[in-house]
Design brief:
The structure is a single chain. The longest helix has 17 residues. It contains 16 helices and 22 strands. The strands form five sheets. Strands 9-10-8-11-12-13 form a six-stranded parallel beta sheet, sandwiched between helices. It has a six-stranded mixed beta sheet with strand order 17-18-22-19-20-21, with helices on both faces. Strands 2-7-6-5-4 form a five-stranded mixed beta sheet. By secondary structure, the protein is of the alpha/beta class. The protein starts with a strand and ends with a helix. It folds into three domains: about 80 residues, MurE/MurF, N-terminal domain (Udp-n-acetylmuramoylalanyl-d-glutamate--2,6- Diaminopimelate Ligase, Chain: A, domain 1), CATH 3.40.1390.10; about 210 residues, UDP-N-acetylmuramoyl-L-alanine:D-glutamate ligase (3-Layer(aba) Sandwich); about 140 residues, Protein-Tyrosine Phosphatase, Chain A. Keywords: ATP-binding, Cell cycle, Cell division, Cell shape, Cell wall biogenesis/degradation, Cytoplasm, Ligase, Nucleotide-binding, Peptidoglycan synthesis. It is found in: Cytoplasm. Pathway: Cell wall biogenesis; peptidoglycan biosynthesis.
């Protein structure tokens, strides 16, 4: 199905098409480009113009460029604009404008991507759903997601993130959501904000992009809930809240194997459903999802059934069996709140021994050492039998643990990965978690490789 014609793209961007073309998709990476995609030559570590010839050789329908690149013929199928990122943003706005379905914006310090995927599962049987396959939530990820959106989309789920002040409002105004969900507020990227209240104000800026009468979905029970509520009031958005004091409230959460049997209430009406995860934070976010579904007028009962099809994405709490070891792969990101949530998941799964393999939590600000150390005294740590740690910040947690809980500490995740045989044993349930740039995911890879080797050799 044609996503963009050269005529439509010219109208959207004000650019110049060297000839007529039709594109079925939009790509920024020649490694994953598909036949018929429009290749967008963004500048990042490398200049995308250097890859235009390769993209066209791989079957790209055209390329969005600011000039004719070296090695590319003048009559190649190009859309020439003054600035490529501006052109992508224009395509994103045009993609949003031609879509008549409902748009949901999702932000928060923890759980954006897993909540986006929960919404995808919840709405999958109620219409055509569009959402990014990865965490495309930044200054190019949001317009790319919108530019890839088919015009006949019924539900679009747009994840919106930030690293610095002033980033969320422009992206939300581009997406123009009918409902905006904030999962939670936690000290992630706090170094750029100085205080958690600054993070709350930035996350709440998502409400500035709401369409008229668009709904704000906010968590209750936080020290920053009042900030979120005020931001919604400032734009006249009706509020639906979730959490201990919210309209969407979890009444009970009963683990059964690797699932949770949940009972809740939404605007006074009972609702029961199953999640294929034992993470308590996923249960709370599921209530936020159902509140969001209600806010856009979709079927909440069908959405609750759809949540039963959802599984945590790889790197964000997915549980898998590696021979005699159960692995919780939560290695994509970390801050103190998400770390406690991950440890909570570990505490709920059966095991002969519960092992946590933890990498540094980054961008926590000047008290980062104390925030690592404080995890040792958190009640959730009582259920953990052994902790291995990597990185200079995690040394603070490691040193604060009782000696009986201390496994191996190493300066780097790579060193831990090289000693994987020393970290776990048959019957363990293992949580691996840390900030992405701690590279603790390399321990996940080493465990998987060890599991594959054991399977291949019959051990």
């Amino acid at each position: 199905m044609t996503l963009w014609t050269s005529e439509d793209a010219v109208a959207a961007t004000g650019g110049n098409a060297t000839r007529d073309w039709q594109a079925n998709g939009v790509s920024i990476d020649t490694r994953t480009i598909r036949q018929g995609d429009l290749f967008v030559a963004l500048k990042d570590v490398r200049d995308g113009h250097d890859f235009v010839a390769q993209a066209l050789e791989k079957g790209a329908a055209a390329a969005l460029v600011s000039h004719v690149p070296d090695g590319v013929a003048d009559d190649a199928p190009l859309l020439i604009v003054d600035d490529v990122l501006d052109g992508l943003e224009a395509l994103g706005r045009a993609g949003r404008a031609r879509m008549n379905g409902k748009v949901i914006g999702v932000t928060g310090s923890v759980g954006k991507t897993s909540t986006k995927e929960m919404l995808r599962a919840a709405l999958a049987k109620q219409g055509r759903v569009h959402a990014a396959e990865a965490s495309y939530n930044n200054h190019w990820g949001v317009p790319l997601t919108l530019a890839r959106m088919p015009a006949d989309t019924d539900f679009a789920i747009i994840e919106i993130g930030m690293s610095n002040p002033g980033e969320i409002a422009p992206l939300s105004k581009m997406a123009r959501p009918h409902a905006a969900l904030i999962t939670t507020i936690a000290p992630a990227h706090i170094g750029a904000f100085g205080h958690i209240d600054g993070i709350a104000h930035e996350k709440a800026a998502i409400f500035q992009g709401l369409v008229p009468a668009g709904a704000a979905i906010i968590p209750t029970g936080l020290s920053t809930t009042a900030i979120l509520r005020q931001a919604a009031d400032d734009v006249g958005a009706p509020i639906l809240s979730f959490g201990p004091e919210g309209e969407a409230r979890l009444l009970s959460s009963q683990p059964e194997g690797e699932t949770l049997q949940l009972r809740g209430t939404l605007s006074g009406k009972p609702i029961n459903f199953t999640l294929r995860s034992v993470g308590p934070h996923f249960a709370e976010n599921a209530m936020g999802v159902l509140a969001t579904v209600s806010a856009i007028g979709a079927d909440v009962i069908e959405a609750a059934k759809g949540l039963g099809d959802w599984l945590p994405p790889q790197g964000r709490g997915a549980v898998e069996q590696l021979g005699g070891i159960r692995l919780i792969d939560d290695a994509f990101n970390a801050n103190p709140n998400s770390m406690r949530a991950g440890l909570g998941t570990l505490s709920r799964l059966p095991a002969q021994r519960r092992v946590a393999i933890l990498g540094d939590m980054l961008e926590l600000g000047p008290d980062e050492a104390e925030q690592h150390r404080a995890l040792a005294a958190d009640p959730v740590m009582a259920s953990v039998d052994l902790v291995h740690a990597a990185g200079p910040l995690m040394r603070n947690l490691y040193d604060a643990l009782p000696e009986a809980k201390r496994g191996i500490w190493s300066e780097s995740a790579d060193d831990l990965a090289s000693r994987v045989d020393e970290l776990v044993q048959e019957g363990d349930t293992v949580l691996i978690k840390g900030s992405k740039s701690s590279y603790i995911s390399r321990v996940v890879q080493a465990l998987r490789k060890a599991g594959d080797t054991a399977t291949a050799t019959g051990t």
